[in-house]
Description:
It is built from two helices and four strands; from the N terminus they run αβββαβ.
Amino acid sequence: MIVYSAMPVEQIFDGMDRYQPEYQEVQVDGLTMLVEPVNAMEGKIVRLLSPNPQDYLNPKYTPGNKIFFRPGF
């Protein structure tokens, strides 16, 4: 990766090695997915865990999309 910037590289990438995301495995609409919580009821889809290939074609469950879920259920 090449970064063109007037800022020092140390400043651009400061904290990048300390980022430790916390993922939760949740079920939404009968599908199991790995989610990075944004707040108590909302999360960002990281990975879909399904044996059905049709589930991966649904744009609603694309990684990066935000979903609403109830933690612990």
